[in-house]
Design brief:
Order of helices and strands of chain B: EEEEEEEEE
Largest interface: A-B, 28 and 24 residues
CATH topology of chain B: Immunoglobulin-like
Largest sheet of chain A: 7 strands, mixed
Shape of chain A: globular
Number of domains of chain B: 1
CATH architecture of chain B: Sandwich
Strand content of chain A: over 45%
Radius of gyration of chain A: 13 Å
Number of domains of chain A: 1
Helix content of chain A: under 10%
Oligomer: heterodimer
Strand content of chain B: over 45%
Chain lengths: ~110, ~110
Amino acid sequence: EAGVTQSPTHLIKTRGQQATLRCSPISGHTSVYWYQQALGLGLQFLLWYDEGEERNRGNFPPRFSGRQFPNYSSELNVNALELEDSALYLCASSFGRENTYEQYFGPGTRLTVT
Amino acid sequence: LAKTTQPISMDSYEGQEVNITCSHNNIATNDYITWYQQFPSQGPRFIIQGYKTKVTNEVASLFIPADRKSSTLSLPRVSLSDTAVYYCLVAPTGGFQKLVFGTGTRLLVSP
């Protein structure tokens, strides 16, 4: 069974540009989560999508946004990139609305803002 | 969300059993305890989840005392590939599974 996939693996952008990151969940999973892990820091929750709707977001500015498509894949958009947005962005998926913290993570997208 | 406290680092040798304890004094009645493993530059991997007493799977065991103010992740016969950061998470279930990771415990397994 294929795991969570993310693309691209690496992304290099300059300040002020926009970045688009993509995630495909495990087949059958309807929930997708996005996390940011800056160098040396723990994971910070960004967004949660379930059944195509944004269910919750973390403490990040509105320039971080995303969406979930009918096939449950998801896209994270970061507008007006800042240097501190450089981080590993991780996507995770799970069965929706279940009482479990068993999330399956993808390999991540390394975003570098110069 | 309940605050968790774990040792910053632990050292072990191949073949030994490793026990990592997490304190969560303010755990609430509907909180679950979950452990994740993370290798450098990779996403975390779910290890085990429990509510009370003991849970065992093919990878690890989780021991939770009756007062649930702490929990112990037990890794039997570790190998070099178990070198990673281990995170203890405590949070309620019920529709919103936001993971809140602390600093974790960095386990180093030596030959």
